[in-house]
Amino acid sequence: MLAAQLTTVVAALFTGAAIYINVAEQPARLALADGPMLSEWRESYRRATIMQAGLALLGGALGCLAAFQAADWRWLLAALILMSNWPYTLIYIKPSNDALNRRASAEGNNGEARRLIVRWGRLHAGRSVLGTAAVLVAIWAQS
After folding, report:
1. pLDDT digits (tens), the chain, 143 positions
2. Which residues are within 8 A (CB) of 138 and not within 5 positions of it... i.e. 6 or more apart?
3. What is the reported pTM?
């Protein structure tokens, strides 16, 4: 069933992007001085938001379709887990995003931007966990 296969692929793409941010981009960002670190975070976040939000929605919609087509609740579970990235982001990550976006620069802020970006990275790991859970449920549903 195409919707089921696409659900798994989209969930894996979301998860891969989230994990990449946590294991490669975030450590590289934190190696920069505060000003460049904040600039890099802004540019990266602006681009990644569109991609990750879109993948979560697309994977969720495909998972719902797969659940309907297969009459299997496991696809719905995968869809709900993947789409739960939206409320997770709005409730837990958005306050850090907003605080970081309000900063004109990281200069002279006594490390506040760095503290916020470190916190943001820990919160972002939740996206990696949710994505991984969605992929595992999708694999389970294929069995």
Report:
1. 899 999 999 999 999 999 999 999 999 999 999 989 999 999 999 899 999 999 999 999 999 999 999 999 999 999 999 999 999 999 999 999 999 988 765 555 668 889 999 999 999 999 999 999 999 999 999 98
2. 4, 7, 8, 11, 63, 74, 75, 78
3. 0.92
106's tokens:
């990281």
Beta carbons of 29 and 44 less than 8 angstroms apart: yes
The DSSP 8-state label assigned to residue 107 in this structure reads T
Q: Measure the CA–CA gap between 19 and 106, rounded to whole angstroms.
A: 26
d(CA 54, CA 50): 6
Residue corresponding to tokens 């797969």 = 66
